[in-house]
Amino acid sequence: MSDPAVSADAPRAQGVLRLRASSFPPAQPLIMGIVNRTPDSFFRPGVTWDESAAMERVHEVIADGADIVDVGGIPAAPGAQVDAAEEIRRTAGFIAAIRAAYPDIVISVDTWRHETGRAACEAGADLLNDSWGGYDERLADVAAEFGAGLVCAHVGQQLPRTRPFRVAYADVMADVLDQVQRLAARALAAGVRSDRIVIDAAHDFGKNTWHSLEVTRRLNEMTETGWPVLVSLSNKDFVGETLNLPPEQRLPGTLAATAVCAWHGARIFRVHQVAESRQVVDMVFAIRGDRPPARAVRGLA
Amino acid sequence: MITAAAVCPAPPLLARELTGTDPVLPELRQACLDATAALLAADPDLVAVVGVAAETRQWDARAVLDLGQYAPALRAAATCPEQADGNRDHAASLPLPLGLAARLLDEAGHGGSRALHSISDRATAWECAALGAELATAAARVALLVMADGSARRGPKAPGHLDERSVPFDAEVERALRTGDMAALLALDAGLASELMATGRPAWQVLAGALAGRQPASGILYSGDPFGVAYLVASLTPVAEGIGPG
After folding, report:
1. With contacts defined as CB-CB under 8 Å, which chain B residues touch A293?
2. Model ipTM?
3. Is the distance from CB of B203 to CB of B10 less than 8 angstroms?
4. I need a surface site. Which of B3, B14, B113, B199 has the fewest CB within 10 A?
5. Contact B76 A292 (CB under 8 A)
């Protein structure tokens, strides 16, 4: 047995996360508002396919309290092929328009491809949200080159845009911890700054509903690594299967999972419904004691 | 001899940390700080503080208010393991009014001597006046900081709900302080004050005893009841009896 005092498994304290010019301490949870430039995403498909509708959506998520805008050009689910050129066409110009409208907002691009990551960074993106577990190793090089952040997600053995098929883990959280920490180490080796690396359990990705419930229940094991943890729970199938509800009825279940992850110390919440998520996360961080009430007078007058 | 006196309320929300992100009543805090600064400007040898608590006694001048009693999250944030030994003789929290007064003195930059006294919430007017007289002779130049609240029953949303008798009661206290009518403070009805949740009654009567018939000039710096509790901030300067310029 190794000495527990020097064990790699000993909890590490969360540190400051830096994105763009901002520094975010562990006590400041961040809401990432999803803006899809796709005609075929699972939740409200196509509503922001049109660029002006997408920009309206950006205004809305920022007004609702989003700290980060996450722009995606390809749905996670299998479907019509979108090559890198088309993905860039959908995202890069739009990111430039957001950057022009909001000089200080943190912009994230949801992609696994380094070509798209590069175009997005050139257009003003600050965070490369790789949901597919480092499939394209050169994405980390782009993050390093541009000083951008990088999300290191667990997908098990999944390839981009594939659904889990009879996946099995001896211990799903052990697999999550192993994969995200290996990806984080690879990002560091590629030159990504340590205060710009984020880890993500990637609920539903390479996981059945039981697996996603398990990683939610044990999310503290991710926060105890010291890496800032992103969770993307919003209206996902594990919520739908748990409650037997279609996507448009998954908000309460999403918020319940959000609350549990916030309680465990997740720091970035990728969501469709920004205002509701903001309230839940701020409330849980106040319960944790990490955030003061907005205005406390009851019993104090 | 009392060279100056100040009256401030003692709600927990006077501690800025307790109200969360919103400062809530910055103007009340500023008025208290101004009254405290005026007190210190009188160049006292000793600042005597009086506030109401369960018993009449003197407190360690180095003790502080434990805000964790009101906001446990703040205690967790403020307490480092090496500070949590609890073996210091001043580790016990001060009563709220004295703790808030100590904070005001710290914030106003008072580094000189201070004496912290609580007066029992059941003390008679005579007992209060006696403590006041004792404090007045504790040093050649004594500044007296009185922490006292009016009725907490000033509206339907007040902590004690509405009792309409609170309005004339608090008006009489304010009149007495504004005009320097110390006899009126000594004459306050303790039973009525208790019914009205006007917790400051004994402290006002200590003030009256300390000024012993010397009608002070005074200014009211704040008067209001934004949360149904009467807050009054006053700055008093005793006149006559040989205390002249120079």
Report:
1. 20-21
2. 0.84
3. no
4. B113
5. no
